[in-house]
Amino acid sequence: MKSSHFIDMMRQQERWRLEESINLLPSENMASPQLRALLSSDFGHRYTLPIEAESGGVYTENAYRGTRLTTEVERSCERAASEVYGSKYSCVQPMGGHIAAMIAIASTTKKGDSLYAIPVENGGYDGYAQPYLPDILGLTAGTLPFDASMQNVDSDATAALIRRKKPRVVILGASFILFPYDMGPIRDACRQAGSKLVYDGSHVMGLIAGGEFQKPLKEGADMLYGSTHKSLFGPQGGIILTDSKALDSEVRKNLTWRFVDNVHWNRVAALGQAMLEMKRFGPAYAKQVIRNSKRFGKELDERGFPIMFKELGFSESHQLHIDQKAVKDRFGLDINEMSIKLEKSNLITDSVGRLGTSEITRLGVREKDLPELADMFIDAAKGKQVKKRVKAFRDRFTMAYRFR
Q1: Which are the contacts of 80, defined by CB distance < 8 A and separation ≥ 6?
Q2: Among 21, 25, 120, 17, which residue's Cα sits nearest to residue 353?
Q3: Are residues 332 and 266 in the same domain?
Q4: For residue 84, is it within any domain?
Q5: 238-242 and 319-321 beta bridge pairing
Q6: How many Å apart are CA 184 and CA 197, to the nearest integer?
Q7: Vertex 236: Cα angle to 233 and 239 (nearest 5)
Q8: How far apart are CA 78 and CA 89, in angstroms?
Q9: Which of 24, 119, 193, 382 has the fewest CB atoms inside 10 Å of its own CB, making it the most exposed?
Q10: DSSP characters for 149-192?
């Protein structure tokens, strides 16, 4: 293996994914040059561990020296996050959305408690199913009533379940998420039952930051947490936000030497940059993401590609959901085979039936561009090679919603 092997792979990756492809994954976004510079900075090599207490008879500010700027990076990132999300407290130490979920759940439960979340079969996050986080944390998992015809929680039935079962924590949010939740009845039931209501915004954190989709903390969630690299501008990581001093204190207790150690301060610096970008560009970006989802759904539907929930406007988020049975009937392919066929033309989708508009929006794509994209998508789905057309389309755009 030559010394430049990984550099060569990086160049291949960046040429393919950043210059030649159109990314329609709902779980990814593209990072600005400033954010990518921070990810490769000296912060990535460093530690900081504020102690600010007596240890072994000696008062110690920090377990390390040379930390003045590293510590300030975390504090500045937290301030920026609280400004963007309108929260009193924020924690940016979680290494990913899954770790943020683990910390949030551990901070609101004790062993033997119950946790209720959206069923996996309705697009809920697999990690909340019994074999995963509940098993690790000693909890019993249950599922919330879900109306598949509306792709949404049945709020009244959920409220009734909460009053009856009195779970310790109720989680709203899912991997398949198109529409906001009616949080009022669920919030009221949680207050009456003594349950904590937490919101996993992993997929919609960028929309929430831009003032769209919904405002979980204002609508009754005790805590909002999620990934920072899907509809948000990246990097990969996690975040936890709350207005409760008591909950923030519980979160802090579950950080050092429990769920995190060194938290990769280059990532935190990059997240701070993403927050500055969201503060400046988030409202316009979030609105455009939703407009693009609605229009792209319409264009694909009109061309015979089956997108679900037409009667509901297709989507109020960055996602579109493919009717997998209709794809099999019309194209003779399952959804995995369809994704492989699309990738041969450099149209990148997932293999579970979702399309995403976050990255194409960040790229500067608007409604007027989506008929052409839909044409290429349909041709690729039918087996035509459209790689050159995809490249020509990609070449017309430069990253938007960023500082120059």
Answers
A1: 272, 275, 276, 279
A2: 25
A3: no
A4: yes
A5: unpaired
A6: 11
A7: 85
A8: 8
A9: 382
A10: TTTEE-HHHHHHHHHHH--SEEEE--SS--S---HHHHHHHHHH
How far is Cα 172 from Cα 165, in angstroms, rounded to an integer? 17
Tens-binned pLDDT, residue by residue, of the chain (404 aa): 999 999 999 999 999 999 999 999 999 999 999 999 999 999 999 999 988 888 778 999 999 999 999 999 999 999 999 999 999 999 999 999 999 999 999 999 999 999 999 999 999 999 999 999 999 999 999 999 999 999 999 999 999 999 999 999 999 999 999 999 999 999 999 999 999 999 999 999 999 999 999 999 999 999 999 999 999 999 999 999 999 999 999 999 999 999 999 999 999 999 999 999 999 999 999 999 999 999 999 999 999 999 999 999 999 999 999 999 999 999 999 999 999 999 999 999 999 999 999 999 999 999 999 999 999 999 999 999 999 999 999 999 999 999 99
Mode of pairing for the β-strands spanning 223-227 and 196-200: parallel
- Residues in the chain, overall count: 404
Specify whether 288 is located in the same domain as 180.
no
* Structural domain count, the chain: 2
CA 245 to chain centre: 25
d(CA 315, CA 311) in angstroms, rounded, equals 10
In a shared domain, residues 153 and 302:
no
Q: How far apart are the first and last CA of the chain?
A: 38
Name the token pair of 134.
């509940």
* CA-CA-CA-CA torsion sign (195, 227, 292, 329): negative
